[in-house]
Amino acid sequence: MALIVQKYGGTSVGSVDRIQAVADRVIETVKQGHQVVVVVSAMSGETDRLLGLAKSISQSPTPRELDVLLSTGEQVTIALLSMCLSDKGQPAVSYTGGQVCIRTDNAHNKARILDIESVRVHKELEEGKVVVIAGFQGNDEAGNITTLGRGGSDTTAVAMAAALKADECRIYTDVDGVYTADPRIVEDAQRLPCITYEEMLEMASLGSKVLQIRSVEFARKYNVNLRVLSSFKEGPGTLITDEDEQMEAALISGIAHNKDEAKLTIVGVPDQPGIASQILGPIADANIEVDMIVQNVGMDNTTDFTFSVHRNDFEKAKSILENTAKSIGGKNVTGDNKIAKISVVGVGMRSHAGIASKMFKALAEEGINIQMISTSEIKVSVIVAEKYLELGVRVLHSAFGLENGALAEN
Ligand code: ASP
Ligand code: MG
User: Fold this and answer.
1) Could you state, in chain order, the average pLDDT of each consecutive group of 10 residues for the chain (410 residues)?
2) Residue 91 is part of which domain span?
């Protein structure tokens, strides 16, 4: 007998029929001899509807009251699913986050889970019940309702699995796993049977559509076996685990990409100590996250300094930089918000040289110019013009032979 946490997202519980189908799957899992805890999202569109209501009443809704409102979405689903399970003859009980003591900090609308008291849930499971828990919410120390940020039900499920020491946390969603690249760009992208936590975090651009990234961080911290699978189609999905638990770690797992990038260059600044901090300090102070940084060495004691930011921060960063240019004596500021990032990701890179050069060669053969480069232990990323994004992803997918599945390292 295993203890399984199953999480169903909004589309999976989006209608009465779908809730019925979820109930059937839960019952099937119980019949296989397992204890089941179910975490659910609000029915699809519900959280947006509630947000819209709040906005129509108030321009800037009080964060505390917004949480009181948004948490009702999940409360509807737990009640409906529990009723449905009972009607089908499976004893079930629903709980809100607060009722199962999911304690969070008091950062309304983006709270973090601090701890979970699992005694009550274990007791219900021992009595043969399925426990249905509202995702996305908890209580702070003072008993206020809090919510965990959009997509937060994934994190509830993983946290619940960690607290209960569950054997597996299964996230049922509308895709059947994590792919070697975005299947909308690469037709022959393959589903990965398994991937490490680290790779999943690096593949955020693919993964974040599938899982709230924070839930992956949580799973890594507490070593929760996390499986992403489809609620509409049978299949093993993708298992996200520790590297040691994977039979064959892949050399390259996939090609990730991100369109939301922009870059800025400050030209002709004096090449002297302290210049990088004078340029990036005001950017950091404005809470703008910097991704890649490149500094070119100039001939005449000046240098060009380039960095990339999220596209939404482009205008703000540009005006800050223009001020900086005036105060430190830079020539001018240029920028480009039509760029994209492509990354080759794989834990096997740690022990294999030559991944980067293979990547650069493949891009060069298509005439794709690389504007910036950054590397980590398990990733090589390049910035290219946005118009080359799709071509670049396809070229790299085939250069690394990913149409045959992730390459095993050996
Ligand atoms: N209902 C919340 C949302 O739409 C939380 C979740 O679904 O995970 O973001
Ligand atoms: Mg989701």
Assistant:
1) 96 97 97 98 98 97 98 98 98 97 96 94 97 98 97 97 97 92 94 93 77 93 96 92 71 92 94 92 94 84 93 96 92 95 92 90 97 93 97 97 71
2) 3-174
Q: Relative to the CA of 151, which ligand 1 atom is closest?
A: 8
Q: Which of ligand 1's atoms lies nearest the C-alpha of 42?
A: 1
Tell me the C-alpha distance between 393 and 181, whole Å: 8
Beta-bridge mates of residue 172: 8, 229
Q: Read off the CATH number of the domain in which 106 is found.
A: 3.40.1160.10
Total domains present in the chain: 2
pTM for the whole structure: 0.88
SS3 179: strand
From the CA of 11, how far away is ligand 2's center (Å)? 9
Distance CA 107, CA 12 (A): 28
Q: Which amino acid is at 293?
A: I
Is 233 among the domain residues? no
Residues 160, 274, single domain; the answer is: no
Residue at which a domain ends, from 136, 151, 174: 174
